[in-house]
Amino acid sequence: MQINVNSRFFEVKRLVEAGFDLIIPRVKWVVQGCVGFRSKLRPVIPVVAQWDPLQILTEECRNASIKVHPYMCVFNEGEDSAFLKQHPEFQAVGPEGTLLNWSCPSRYEVQNHLLALYEEIIDNYDVAGVHMDYIRYDDDNMCFCTHCREAFKRRYREDALAVHSGGYGKHFWMDFREENIRRFVRSMRKLTAERGKELSAATWSTYLWGKEGYGQDWCAWAREGLLDLSCPMDYTNSLDDLKDLIPGQLAAVEGKCPLWVGIGKKSSHSDLSPQQFAEQILLCRQLGADGITVFSHVALTDEDLALLKRL
User: Fold this and answer.
1) pTM of the predicted model, to two decimals?
2) Terminus-to-terminus CA distance in the chain, angstroms?
């Protein structure tokens, strides 16, 4: 479950009493690419100059015996990113040459920088693991920077722009992007395994479109043993949608890692009443999900938390 990195929302005890055993706080924003922890590699949000929200949260969670997996919006940098201003060569590019608010996922320099950010968290905070969000491309219209086009040309002897527009070799382009993302996930698995930490991820709800449209083959990650916890973002108001999604997700991971269904209490795709919230949780149990994640903490009311205690 997400929690806002702000002292007013540190309700760890109430969350534990409601049955939560994992908090996933955001520590890298999609505005200016800044971070919410004491970093030597990125600009930090202003509040961190006065106090360290992540330090306080991890201390409270340790005392309450609840896990913390801080998460970053990985390749999404947002507008006015200090990182992309410093390294404009790392900025993702659209098919028309438009500069995007994402870093290029295929660049080793980008991946190494992001790994170093996660390493800062693991080495300096008492966390059970770390979590990845936006661990993908924005859509199927990126990245066409010079680096990507040259790398694709060397490997497949095809022009990325030509195959993207529907020419022969489109499947090569999808494979190229998926392999770039999986390379980063493998590096994250290596880092967390060496440090004895868990690795979790927020993933696309529809597996096939996640792979083909966003380069995110999260079910293959699970089968390869790269994840300790997969959290598909099944944000919807519809029980029928969940009934369609969850069995396929469980089948695709083949039991290789726990699957916690992401329920959108309030998101861009959902806004659940307490009754709808309860119905979705019960359906997840009925269909065999290993657990649930809730987006987001600030949307949970006292009525929701009381309901969770009874379920």
Assistant:
1) 0.94
2) 17
